[in-house]
Write a structure and sequence with these properties.
By secondary structure, this protein is of the alpha/beta class. The chain contains eleven helices and 20 strands. The protein has two domains: 148 residues, Lyase, Ornithine Decarboxylase, Chain A, domain 1; 181 residues, Alpha-Beta Barrel (TIM Barrel), CATH 3.20.20. Helix 2 crosses helix 3 and helix 8 runs parallel beside helix 9. Keywords: Pyridoxal phosphate.
């Protein structure tokens, strides 16, 4: 990727700033993971992590479907595939979104509350349809630790476990809904493969018990995503092979016969094949600390700020210096990488020991393919947007700003 950045820099005079995505690596890696799962598992991509069209087109042939959380995301998926299965989740779905889900033939809708059940039943009745749904349940704790807890504590997600009996009773009055199973998503960015396999087993045992209690035909269990990325130590990532090896034996004994288990992974699928590159504009010392100011910042790549971590990077040297004034440089020091915004929170990396960095060099941040541009405040201060470069078969496709 460094060679691509250097070559692109030679073509332009403006400071370099871009996202780069290796679509070949993305497809190969994802296809390998999907095919390695036991036969009763399917891998969906949660497009909230990165919903750019080139990413979706690359993934459509190698995943079993897409998970979305809005009508806008449904439309993005349908632009790249008319028939790929879609899972539709998220709190606060509007009538227009639920209508759109039916029009676009969504595979399953994850119902998040009793009110949403009632709303969807009425909409389905107007269309003379029986809609397949999963009930999203916010489980009682305690649950394994991870970077972000999505359940096991008060959140806006799902129906609390204690309310399940009332929800099941209410469903008896809703003839246009067909409950096909349950949806759980309790953790995000979990790095412990063994613990995550055990968590999936727990999901299966609960779903099977509830199906027996309420007389349900349990066809699907959505075990969510939550497989993590280790930004602090890039060489020590979630052990996919161990996770998959554990799934077959752990889960089969707990799952209902003929039940299909879905994963909806986002970060784990796209993070490692995306990069953010930003040219160094200034190097300065302020009250004993050194700063490298780059073209861009958290308005392009908000992930480090939102997750409060120091993102790893490498220095790509650019030897050309066409200016008549002195070129600032820093050798064998700790430096913090900051952006152009007028806020002290615009920090991408903190106190990183470097051998050398100069104004005009380019910093390349790996593992930037998920929750980077997608969650950033693009137009704060009205700075230019980065380029978006997609690499496939040794060529660039569909790039732009």
């Amino acid at each position: 990727m460094a060679e691509v950045v250097q070559e692109r820099k030679q073509r332009q005079n403006e400071p370099f700033c871009a996202y780069l995505h290796d679509l070949d690596a993305l497809k190969v890696q994802t296809a390998s993971r999907a095919s390695s799962l036991p036969e009763f598992f399917k891998l969906f991509y949660a497009i909230k992590a990165n919903s750019e069209e080139a990413i979706l087109r690359a993934l459509a042939p190698v995943v079993h479907g897409f998970e979305v959380a809005s009508l806008g995301e449904i439309k993005k998926v349908r632009q790249v595939s008319a028939d790929i299965p879609i899972l539709f989740g998220g709190p606060g779905k509007t009538e227009a979104e639920l209508e759109g889900a039916l029009q676009h033939n969504v595979h399953l809708i994850h119902v998040e509350s009793v009110h949403e059940m009632n709303k969807l039943n009425a909409i389905a009745g107007r269309h003379n349809k029986k809609v397949s749904v999963l009930l999203r349940i916010n489980l009682k704790g305690p649950l394994p630790q991870a970077k972000l807890a999505m359940g096991g504590r008060p959140t806006q997600f799902g129906i609390e476990e204690e309310q399940l009996p009332q929800a099941m009773e209410q469903l008896q009055q809703l003839p246009n809904l067909q409950v096909e199973g349950f949806h759980f998503h309790s953790l995000s960015n979990n790095l412990d493969a063994e613990a995550h396999a055990q968590l999936v087993r727990y999901y299966c045992s609960l779903a099977r018990r509830w199906a027996e209690t309420y007389g349900l035909s349990l066809r699907y269990l959505n075990a969510g995503g939550g497989l993590g990325v280790n930004y602090a130590e890039l060489e020590q990532q979630f052990d996919w092979n161990h996770f998959v090896n554990q799934l077959g034996s752990l889960v089969k004994e707990a799952a209902s016969p003929d039940m299909m288990i879905y994963f909806e992974c986002g970060r784990y699928i796209t993070a490692s094949t995306g990069y953010y590159a930003a040219e160094v504009l200034d190097i300065k010392r302020n009250h004993g600390k050194y700063y490298a100011v780059v073209r861009g910042g958290t308005h392009h790549f908000r992930l480090p700020s939102s997750w409060q971590h120091s993102h790893p990077f490498q220095v790509i040297t650019v030897d050309e210096w066409p200016h008549p004034y002195e070129r600032p440089s820093l050798d064998d020091e700790k430096v913090s990488v900051v952006g152009q915004l007028c806020t002290p929170k615009d920090v991408l990396a903190q106190d990183v020991q470097i051998d050398q960095v100069r104004v005009g060099d380019i910093l390349l941040f790996p593992y930037a393919g998920a929750y980077g541009w997608a969650i950033s405040h693009h137009d704060f201060l009205s700075h230019p947007h980065p380029e978006h470069i997609y690499l496939e078969s040794n060529a660039e496709i569909g790039g732009g700003v």
